[in-house]
């Protein structure tokens, strides 16, 4: 047994100081906990289609004023930027979409769910994962030992910089474990990324050795219990615990999970996470069995490509459809952007330019050729 790696004594008003215990230092970290094992409270989503909405739900921590950020989380446009706004009521338009209308936060004095189990999924970069595991698994093993939680980090997929940290256990134990992981990140150099979902949503940079970021992956069906009626809960969490809390409007690609970015000091994050856990446990039943998990994929698969194909002029109208309905259907199903060139004098063909991921481009081409074949068949039958 070795000396504890962490000396932080969390001093929440409602919790006694943590008594530091020893941790193992030579057992190997389990890095292969599957995303599919995440069946706990914070990792169950309502089914939903991935959207291309470009808003973020956010509120500034100190003044509890609202701001909005762009979050392009579709597979064809992974970039994400965050900008400030001043309107308080621009932010939670989705409160009318079945969201929880609670205004008050759960009490830390309420121990009715003290023994309930929760599971968190946290997005980390490959470099951050190395810090959280530590040499020979020393860091993650120490956190498991001291907090009585289960924790694991997914394998690194070739071509991506993203990994998933999973932490499961009792509510306050998970809050403590996540805070220890946040403390481990303080010792690493601050990284910046220019693409969603690793790009920082907040416009406020972290202060070295003082503040850090945790990227929680939260089921969309449970977002309402965090936001509350007209944003009341998310405002209170930020105001009461002096943290920044920003939720991406769009789902992470291929999933119905949303990213919730927490930024603050380790102590403040701990207090906030205790409340967040209690909020999520309230809405557990609505999300059971409906989660589509976010799985990091190679960026080579999401790299944009462009293809051009030509169709006879007399077929273009049929491919576009009445009021553009047919071409819009191809765009929606494939996820690709399709541009139609102007008619060129002397040419009997029009050029269609298709842009998107390789998969989206191939899907769009297949649908266009299918529609062309159907139209040719219809015309042939009409002339018989």
UniProtKB/TrEMBL annotation:
It holds the Pfam family KH_1. Keywords: Repeat, RNA-binding. Residues 116-186, 210-281, 303-373 form the K Homology domain. PROSITE patterns: KH_TYPE_1 (PS50084). Residues 89-100 have a biased composition (Basic and acidic residues). SMART domains: KH. Residues 1-13, 78-88 have a biased composition (Polar residues). Residues 1-107 are annotated as: Disordered. GO terms for molecular function: RNA binding. Residues 19-32, 42-77 have a biased composition (Low complexity). This is K Homology domain-containing protein.
